[in-house]
Structures are given as C-alpha cells and as structure tokens.
Amino acid sequence: MLSATRRGARLARLLAVSELRSRGVSRELTERAELVVAELAANAVLHGRMPGRCFRLTLVIDPSAGRLRVEVSDARGDLRPTETAPDPLSTGGRGLTLVTALADHWDCVPHPPSGKTVRADLLGPVA
Asked: Average of pLDDT values for 32-43?
C-alpha cells in the first residue's frame, strides 16, 4: 500500500523498477513498465484518491508467457478510466494514451469493496 500522494506515486515507480531489475527482467520491459507504473500511479493519486485511503501496486511476472502485468488499485470505483483524445493545448490528459501505446493490453476491473484496479499487460522478454 502506498500513500495517495505525489510522493507515493514516485515511490511506486522506484519500487517497481528496483523489483524488476532484481528479478532480471529485461531492460526494455523494465523501461516500459516504469512509464506505465508512473502513469497509473499518478492517475490513482489524481483521480482515485479518497481521504485516508492508499493505493496498491502489484506486479505479476509470468516468464513462461513472457508477460508482466502491472496492477494499480485505488478506492474510487465510481471513477472509471476512459481514453479520450487529449486537448492539444492542454498540459495533461495523455496518461492513458501513453499506457495504450506502451502496454499490449489494459483494462479496468472492480476492486472490492468499492474501488477499481487498472491492469496493464506488457509482453516481451521477461528475463
């Protein structure tokens, strides 16, 4: 569990990279995962935050399938992510566009009792 703050989002990214490197995940996959974790954690902090509630980062490595799954769960199940065309003059709103470009698949599922989990699958050489 990580605090739903900018610091918590940064820590999620750093912890993910450290864990993936320690497990021998390929550099290319680690770099993609770093960006996906950063975007999903930032979204959890910005859009999924509820007072007194944290967010959760889960990494699932499946070497036999050549897949890394990144999961970020937050407390706001009522706010589901949607990818929309960003305003070209806006300085934000491109996170899910970036996740779509980097991940091979992403989706959002309920996280009981009232939250959601955004999952992103990244395919590639795990080790």
From this structure: 97
